[in-house]
Amino acid sequence: MTLRMYDLAGADPARRFSPYCWRTKMALAMKGLPVETIAWRFTEKQVLGALGCDKVPVLVDGDRVVTDSWAIAEYLEETYPDRPSLFGGPGGHALARFINAWTDAVLHAGLVRMVVADIAKVLAPEDAGYFRQSREARFGMPLEAVQADREAKLEGFRQSLHPLRMVLRTQPFLGGAAPLYADAIVFGGFQWARCVSPFRLLAADDQVEAWRQRMLDLHGGLARAAIGFD
Amino acid sequence: MTLRMYDLAGADPARRFSPYCWRTKMALAMKGLPVETIAWRFTEKQVLGALGCDKVPVLVDGDRVVTDSWAIAEYLEETYPDRPSLFGGPGGHALARFINAWTDAVLHAGLVRMVVADIAKVLAPEDAGYFRQSREARFGMPLEAVQADREAKLEGFRQSLHPLRMVLRTQPFLGGAAPLYADAIVFGGFQWARCVSPFRLLAADDQVEAWRQRMLDLHGGLARAAIGFD
């Protein structure tokens, strides 16, 4: 039975921008598992509620429902052990948690401040209202104010990527010679930005940009084909 | 033949504070390999030069000389494959590079600004002169000025540890249920500070502090027994 996945969408149902959903889509592609994605909007809480979930990604595999991108990655690794490994062994599994935490705490925290008002522009009207209200409460200011000085924030953001850059000087992927789920985790953030904003986050000569291009090429250009910018 | 290792020392030859040497000492202990450490001072360049090296750690294993903590970890993993793994498989090997880079770029960069003047105080006189001159050139100010506002820097430093804290909420070590070399990498930074400075970097109720205490307990309290503070 084909796997199904609820995937956050914009006003255009083909615009799929959630960084966490991208982690899962890349993980499924690494495992070689086809998936049928179902467009889902922030305000469709009852759709997920019926599955006992409250946020995407949600993966439905036969009678199993799994939510949370990390839990889904662990589920896929355990359920499909004969497919290519997402973690590359127990050490890679444990250390991917650090990449996950760094991505949430550093990469996403930096990214969102440069694209958050652009996100509101690509949402369906009912979602845009919800998004603006909830995020403006979080930031304590209008989304446009959060994003206003993004040119000035760019240098600090790029500096925060330095650990990533140092690794990518010595190997093509975080996972080594080939990508692992750790690459999908970090890539999800950049793909989130790419799907919602024309703002250029990376300098053309940055090793991180070269890696992002390699990630866009994976799995037949899966991520490159997504509705977005650049 | 017993392994030998050149290990940075202070005025007291028993004070061994280099974070990179601690990475190697913890790695050797994880592998269960006894080592004879040789006190080395910054100004003894000719001692290492005779081995074709210019900085510690330097590991001498029979007729093999290996320098650089990362290269030594890879050497030990390859040369002693029947001993406990430092990386936990190929994924853990690849992702440990990110931990290594994060530690150098974020943890050490934050740490050094809070303890650098204290380092000068524990060095032998000839080393203290070299250290002050080279580090003051790097920071562009007296060491005491770098460190002067450390109380004010503490909150930002602790905030920078958030990815570490997030992981340690879900598992006792970065390596999972048991420590891997990734733990040694990060611990090296905290042990560096502990060996040179009485300054308290971590709050008592921080999960990172609980992990540091677990690391101090490993291998019969190897790191706890070191000459230092707290």
From TrEMBL, chains A, B:
<dbReference type="InterPro" id="IPR054416">
    <property type="entry name" value="GST_UstS-like_C"/>
</dbReference>
<protein>
    <submittedName>
        <fullName>Glutathione S-transferase family protein</fullName>
    </submittedName>
</protein>
<dbReference type="InterPro" id="IPR040079">
    <property type="entry name" value="Glutathione_S-Trfase"/>
</dbReference>
<dbReference type="InterPro" id="IPR004045">
    <property type="entry name" value="Glutathione_S-Trfase_N"/>
</dbReference>
<dbReference type="Pfam" id="PF22041">
    <property type="entry name" value="GST_C_7"/>
</dbReference>
<feature type="domain" description="GST N-terminal">
    <location>
        <begin position="8"/>
        <end position="84"/>
    </location>
</feature>
<dbReference type="InterPro" id="IPR036249">
    <property type="entry name" value="Thioredoxin-like_sf"/>
</dbReference>
<dbReference type="InterPro" id="IPR036282">
    <property type="entry name" value="Glutathione-S-Trfase_C_sf"/>
</dbReference>
<dbReference type="Pfam" id="PF13417">
    <property type="entry name" value="GST_N_3"/>
</dbReference>
